[in-house]
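so the lab meeting is tmrw and i was supposed to have these ready like two days ago... anyway. pasting both below. for each one the top line is the aa sequence and the line under it is the structure tokens. i havent really looked at them closely yet so no promises
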Amino acid sequence: MTVELVRGQNHPLPDTRLEIRVSAGHPVVAGATLGDEGGRVPGVEWIAHPGSPSLPGVEVSQQAAADHRLAVDLEAVPAAVHRLSLLLALPVGVGGPTRFGAVAAPFVAVTGLDGTEVASYTITGLDRESAVVALELYRRQGAWKVRAMGQGYEGGLAAMLGDQGLERPADLAATILDAVARGLARSVSAPPPRVPETERVRHSAPAAAPETMAAADSAPTLPVTPPPPPPSTPLPSTPAPSAPAPSGGTTGGGPISYAHPGRRTAAPEPEPRQAPPVPVAGDASGWSMDERLYNQVWGMFEDLARTTAAYRSACDFAESRLDKELDGVLSDPRSRIGGAGDAAREAARARHDELTARAQEVLDRDLAQLAAESEVVEPALPPAYARWDNPVWHAYRVPMEAPMALRLGDLHLPERPDLRIPMLVRLPLERGLWVDSGRGRSEAAGLLDEAELRRLALDTAVAHAARLLAVYPPGEFTVHVVDPAGSGATALAPLVGAGVLAGPPAAGAAGVTAVLAQLTERVDLVQMALRAGAPDALPPGMDTAEQLLIVHDFPHGFDDRAVNQLRYLADEGPAVGVHLLMVADREAASAYGPVLDPLWRSLLRITPVPDDHLADPWVGHAWTYEPPLFPSGSRILPQVLAQVAEARRQWGR
């Protein structure tokens, strides 16, 4: 199964004959360098680029393109070569973007010759850089591995080549870009689309009469936001054809009709209305079933967002049109009073009701289809994606491989509150989590007292931590807890009793300081190893598992130094496998002032009660988030944690 890498992560290569695929969404220059054990490239003859596309063991494309396929044969590279780096750069002087922050994140994948994907990497976090080292294939103890690099250069191709130890990198970069420019100049643009016969006939038809055009312009239309309207949306009717001209005659330059003038043709039979397709779990694209289900869930999320946006847009249009027509009636003294005015107002309201009814019909149809799909998909979800009341947890076994995503709760919109879409986030976590124990503006939180809200917040954090422990292989996820006042002992008891924590919850200021110092040192060591190009060169005995720090009752027990360390972990930790799970009330930490604003912004805020604080990136809907809850009286949590603890003992972790 394919592995989706994050920056700095490596993965063994099962074969030496490979293909590297690049998808950038915009033309980029692709090249490769062969380096020694220290990563240094001896000279220009060790670089494959559009002007010199072939080297022993590697071949690249000869011009810039949005998609590339690089052939690699690691057995054919010279024995002195220990590293093969994939370089991507934006072409200059062709009128395109000059920085990667202005285009979609490039995607690279290493595949076998049969197309089976081994590892992939989406190069995120680029901004002003115009060149990037995407991947590195390196030899370690006789075997080859791939490492996700994502090292960008604002100085472009010249700076990247200079960083690899090449002399006169600016001249070499100019040579490469000149070869790219020549390749683009030789390329032939696609011919214009051929005009269909019907279009050519239409252009020669006589123009419509002015009164006919005005009537067409005033016909009611339903505004549609992307995606395009569903097939059942009523479309304007096609005007009936005029009587055919006699055979051999013409009608003002229009096409000749050879139909018999006295023969009546039967109207075509209407096509039967097709039933909506039966939903199937896992029918989205993807290599594994988990990947297909992940893509299907987010496809449902997008469909719900867009169909709701179309419905709201249609209702807004109907309201604005009604207001405009009523204003027109009131502004005309002749129709302000009397029967004419009443008739005009009734006609305007009738048109409004018709538009909203048509929009509601389309919405109901789409929501019914999504609800049917949800009923099929929800029972088929694996534990990482499933709710706690899903029967899949009763057959739970500790996995031997981490999933690609994790469920943090459910999302729904007010148009259909019972249609809930799983909120999935990719693993490893790219941001820390913040369970807000404050009231905020949530109506549900306003109905609870402060103590109950804090208890629910910590229960939510424990549920998230338990799921993370359950979906990772034994020993590959470590959880630390900071509870300075010891007020969370009851909620933390399942984690403590199962023995799945790295140690007892740290209490007091001294305990906070010790845990933060340990994790800060780990971040520093991993970062230094990555910068040195030797991520495997870590101190012996160091825990290489993903780390999660649960912070309860912040800022109690935190001094200024501890607050700075916490901000450092929030900013730098996720890139090297250290994640935060904060349980805090922002107002309780207001004494620190704006110094903590970057901390809150860096974390994904979730709530212990339903709250509509999340927005989607397409149309900005306010989605209601519902936290994961255990069924009343359920024993799922202790059973799952007991299996995690037992698996750790068996594997000596």
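ok protien two:
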Amino acid sequence: MSGAAWHARIVCGKEVGAGFLVSASRVVTCAHVVRWSGASEVTVTFPNSRESGPVRATVAVHGGWAGGAADPGDLAVLELDREVPVEPAEFAPPGAELGGPDAAAPTLVAYGFPKGYDEGMLARYQAVPGALVSDEWRQLEAVTAHGQPLAPGFSGAAATLADGRVVGMVSTVAGARDARVGRMLPTQVMVRYWPELCELVPTSEHRPDAVRRLYSLVRRAVVQGVACDPDRLYVDAVGLFGPPLPEGGFASLGAAAGYVQWEVPGTEAVDRFADRLRELLDARPARSAVAPSWSPILVEIEHSGAGPDQVTVEVSAYRDGHRRRVGSRRLPRTAVRAYVQERIDEAFTQLAPDADELITFVLPREWLNEPVAHWECGADDSTPLGCAYPLVVVDRSRHRSGRLRHQLAKKWQKLDAFPGARLHRVECGTPERPPMLRKRLRDDDADLAGFSFPPATARPRFEVGLNTPVPVLVWPRTGCADTGHDGPCSGAAFLDELAAAVTGVPPAQLPRHVMALRETADADEDPDRHWARDVQLLWDDPRRFPEPPASLHSPVA
């Protein structure tokens, strides 16, 4: 064990923890070990590898841990600034920590870094059989009364068998009252929060080469934006007599592949799933030269629960279909803009050199009219963000809805073939009730809804657009403030101009097209009177955000 070079020591601010290398550039650890990554540098070292010096890292995947000792999702994946010459850890099949029907639970070894032992220490524990604690943790108990306890510094350490194979990750260290007890996330729980781990954790039925082929094809499909329905692929793979489609379907292609690997008996379904995906990739026509392959920089804002003025802000960047977290912090509303400006600039360092950047603000519903496109690029650059980059907003509730994500993904598969967007007008002077509007948008299979008024003017009607799978919504931030009027108004004029501006524009091109409109308005002799001055674009393509919020129950959802 002491010679295994893949064990990692992680420092983030005042926090010291452990982790383990799972690929040439990725390390798994606990989310609480890197809780201060928004303000402090994350440094990873490999004490048993003399060839590998300290390496900087960023948080690429966050399991959703909310900050409490009993909160689920305490997992993070770190992306190293460079690859390291170290063989990654290997995993044992799920449940190996419990032994067999006729064998006692094996001794598990954890390599951690308690205070005063930067080179590391070993702790020996056993897993307690039976149910998981809160369907999340496997309880650990010390093998001896006098050995090294799971003290602070062991969080994130791999729990391994005697042969070095990983069965879980230490997540809760021994308490002051009982130093003999701790907890770990077993592998079947870890994959809930990072479905890509399914590729690395062996299952007894499947050949390793078949699993590698499956996930290689999934990655290709995600990066290339191939149009495929995960639910249909699953049904094709399992056949008429296979397990039924899980309720709600699959939020991503990776989730469907993981479910086939872990939950469907036999090996045939994995092969059929991969074969069908390969057919779709081979049959896919070349991507249009005008269709961007967007690499989003994601700015997520949500209420922190600490008070009406306090919000949590998280900034991430997507590269090659993977999400890399740049920073996260709780802030008063007045400090959000400056923090976002700094983190967006840092997020650009995570994008590929040829990436088509897309600034995406995921906002609470009451923030959707926030003038984020007018925020300056930085303290030394007064250029509005919406004039410097394609910039869109997304409704946070919709972003978290598995139902709407699934419906929107199917809608975008159809839109890829459309030569131009079709504007569906939502006028402020008409008596159309919300149920009538909902029916019209569904019957017309609307892809672009243009509102003549800002959200607060007629909130129930505006929310129909948010709660219906309409991929694109456009409105004037400052427009008609009263829907109860007759005759022409500024909102109707806005829709007239918008219709002329977007006719014939492919939906995938709208973020860039709206950026050009904003630039034109900003350069006008009287910018405040230009119709596109305050245009707000909600553009929602779930395929650009391939890592969905993790389920707390299904191991691969």
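from a quick look at the 2nd one: The chain has a mean pLDDT of 86. The CA atoms of residues 250 and 256 lie 6 Å apart. will dig more after coffe
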